[in-house]
Amino acid sequence: MELRMCTGEGHGIIVFKLMPGVRVPDEEALQSPILGVPSPPFTFPRLLSCPSSHSNSPMEPSQSAHQYGALDQNDLSGMQLSGNKVRKLEFLMADAVAQGADSVITIGGIQSNHCRATAVAAKYLNLDCFLILRTSNLLVDKDPGLTGNLLVERLAGAHVHLISKEEYSKIGSVTLTNVLKEKLIKEGKRPYVIPVGGSNSLGTWGYVEAVREIEQQIQKGTENIKFDDIVVACGSGGTIAGLSLGSSLSTLKAKVHAFSVCDDPDYFHNFAQGLLDGLKAGVSSRDIVHIQNAKGLGYAMNTSEELNFVKDVAAATGVILDPVYSGKAAYGMLKDMLENPKKWEGRKILFIHTGGLLGLYDKVDQLASFIGNWERMDVNESVPRQDGIGKMF
Ligand SMILES: Cc1ncc(COP(=O)(O)O)c(C=O)c1O
């Protein structure tokens, strides 16, 4: 199978060729010690070959494959497609239970995958869940609806508290969660606060652990792959802190490349440093992770090119990237490969898909304009009809 894609005017094309993946046997399914649910086995590594040389003609496939990549489907990590969030929550929820909490509070954007994963994880553990969700000033007093992550959160009975973007940026996520915490304590509850994206030093362990799993999978696989690079999206910083620390401590020693979808690389270096210091890691984030900007139009906003890219990858591979995180990171990676081919030439790359499928539902209007593969079925007069209305099933 082959995928050709244009990543913007004048960028030419890049070709992905899917090769047979190696499925880790069922007994290797990851066991979540805290939440007590087995995560499904990774489809790891699903190999991709990405030639760095590219043709100027969008219809002419490139012949030579200088690079190859693998896809680690952390989007299939369990718990209603929880992606990377479930890894951090394993540790955070364990702490909540150990501290005797009866409820959790967390905070994020209106389509936060982390908030949705927390809502589900809370119910697995019989905890109440309170979410503070950031939305536009225009929508903050209206029912937020049931699109994407909101549907799962509300089905799972999470208590949704809306906050405007303006209030959020003026008050800050820490104060907002503390205000709600105080209120709940006064009402007799025992809430545990989880920060934005589950990204604190404790949650960071989730991705240190993920590296251990990748390492084991490589060791047990038939090919002895040595990855040069790990590529992943960065939204709140915990995933890259854990991955880069894990990679530098393990036999992997792969260079971690983060594509940030909000804020800027400097902010994330400083934030990741705080998480690493909290673990007494004794390393500098600038030495172990390279962060590039893939924000584009802004957090959770997409250009048509980005969404077209997500559509092309889905149509060619069946892998559904999300529009806010992995879609932007993969798009940013390919753009960088095209602009800086030397940097990536000959590298073995592991791209980590961190989930977020439900966020696509928030983009249906924008996607509709370039998804047109439907038609009315042609049943002309020669196709025999039954009397009456016919049988439905
Ligand atoms: C699907 C998805 N991928 C990646 C990320 C980024 O991970 P992190 O917040 O740890 O930087 C997030 C959340 O922010 C996410 O929801």
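^ pyridoxal-5'-phosphate complex. The first helix runs from residue 85 to 98. The radius of gyration is 22 Å.
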